[in-house]
């Protein structure tokens, strides 16, 4: 038998996910000296400069569903070219927005945000093209997946006939006007890992990336109905909350192990909501008064993932201005730098470019220099190895010149993505 290709090896490894035991990450890279950032040469040219490209609801790309393959490709390449123009080096492309795919997945249907009809072939391979064209421009391509969101409505009949949620209605929980896979079911966790890791197996993506959606954000007056799953699987836990957090911990640990098995060297990053817990809730928390805390409301122990080095990088979404009375950007950068110090987990900061010049925002966001001040402040902390901007539409529009100001003040020279 001839030598197995790297892609064939990756796909073969992926096929074992359903049965192979998944161990928690062991060891990982050596822990750097306190204050050091893995892969970042302070004062040098290694720094992550990223942009999120959201496909859900055609937020950033494609501009609308149903464009021709050539038009979709042209728009995608324009986003990549803008990233190069602004001396960014990383594109975080949403490739699994609603339990669907922007590549020919054997597990899930084609995304409706391409053609307007879920399951319809768009006539090209968006993820494959994105990886090749990003790398040709010297950009990293991080494949952004949402693990559990199925649909932005509650009608399973609107899903493609082949959709796994229709084949397994017992996996599905309607909540807040949307459909979600139930994180409390081991079979769901195994399935979503196979679906997401298929992208890693097929393409040389530089990272697999999760956003902030684990258990859904709370909706007043509604209950996420996982009673049956809790009765079956939660007996070892003192509370439902502890069981839910363990479900998400398992997803993170197992995904990390799966990436190492399928394509060693690919990174794993997560961009959570920016507040783990308020200090009033937990003395280890941040000096904030946020209405949502990821630990308690999304059942995502983001601090643990960093401290225990389960993930390669974290990008907390610090979408507030400096001096915000409830969640001050300056205080949160300091808190996250303290969390990341000495862990081996790289810290990048998620930046709210979308707020700059937007109607109805705080007056601070009318100042084109607000984001530039963010980068200047974050540079005081050696743990901060870069920034990611939301989103690509605003990079293109740059309503008040906030991105241009960032580029002029901080990105005068190109930088290499940290590894």
From TrEMBL:
Pfam families: GHL10
Domain Glycosyl hydrolase-like residue range list: 47-366
Highest taxon of the lineage: Bacteria
Keyword Signal included in the entry's annotation: yes
Annotated signal sequence range: 1-26
Record key words, sorted: Signal
Name of the protein described by the UniProt record: Glycosyl hydrolase-like 10 domain-containing protein
């Amino acid at each position: 038998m001839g030598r197995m290709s790297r892609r064939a090896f990756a796909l073969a490894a992926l096929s074992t996910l359903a049965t192979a035991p998944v161990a928690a990450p062991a060891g990982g890279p050596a822990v750097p000296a306190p204050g050091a950032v893995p892969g970042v040469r302070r004062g040098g040219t290694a720094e992550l400069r990223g942009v999120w490209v959201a496909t859900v609801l055609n937020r950033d790309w494609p501009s609308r569903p149903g464009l021709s393959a050539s038009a979709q490709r042209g728009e995608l390449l324009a986003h990549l070219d803008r990233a190069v123009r602004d001396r960014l080096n990383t594109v975080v492309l949403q490739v699994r927005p609603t339990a669907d795919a922007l590549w020919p997945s054997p597990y899930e249907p084609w995304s409706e945000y391409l053609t307007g009809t879920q399951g319809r072939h768009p006539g090209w391979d968006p993820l494959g093209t994105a990886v090749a064209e990003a790398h040709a421009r010297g950009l990293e391509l991080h494949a952004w997946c949402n693990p559990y969101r199925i649909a932005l409505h509650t009608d399973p009949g609107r899903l493609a006939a082949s959709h796994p949620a229709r084949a397994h209605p017992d996996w599905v929980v309607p909540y807040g006007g949307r459909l979600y896979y139930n994180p409390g079911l081991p079979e769901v966790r195994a399935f979503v890992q196979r679906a997401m890791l298929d992208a890693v197996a097929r393409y040389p993506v530089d990272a697999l990336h999760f956003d902030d959606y684990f258990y859904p954000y709370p909706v007043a007056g509604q209950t996420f109905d996982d009673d049956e799953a809790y009765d079956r699987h939660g007996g070892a836990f003192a509370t439902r909350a502890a069981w839910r957090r363990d479900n998400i911990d398992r997803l993170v640990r197992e995904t990390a192990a799966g990436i190492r098995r399928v394509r060693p060297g690919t990174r794993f990053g997560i961009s959570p909501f920016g507040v783990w817990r308020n200090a009033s809730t937990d003395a280890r928390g941040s000096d904030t008064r946020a209405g949502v805390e990821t630990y308690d409301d999304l059942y995502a122990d983001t601090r643990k993932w960093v401290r225990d080095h389960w993930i390669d990088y974290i990008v907390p979404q610090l979408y507030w201005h400096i001096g915000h009375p409830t969640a001050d950007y300056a205080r949160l950068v300091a808190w996250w730098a303290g969390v990341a110090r000495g862990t081996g987990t790289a810290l990048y900061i998620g930046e709210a470019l979308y707020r700059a010049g937007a109607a109805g925002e705080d007056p601070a966001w009318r100042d084109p220099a607000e984001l530039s001040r963010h980068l200047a402040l974050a540079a005081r902390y050696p743990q901060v190895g870069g920034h990611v901007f939301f989103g690509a539409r605003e990079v293109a529009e740059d309503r008040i010149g906030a991105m241009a100001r960032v580029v002029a003040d901080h990105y005068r020279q190109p930088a290499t993505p940290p590894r």
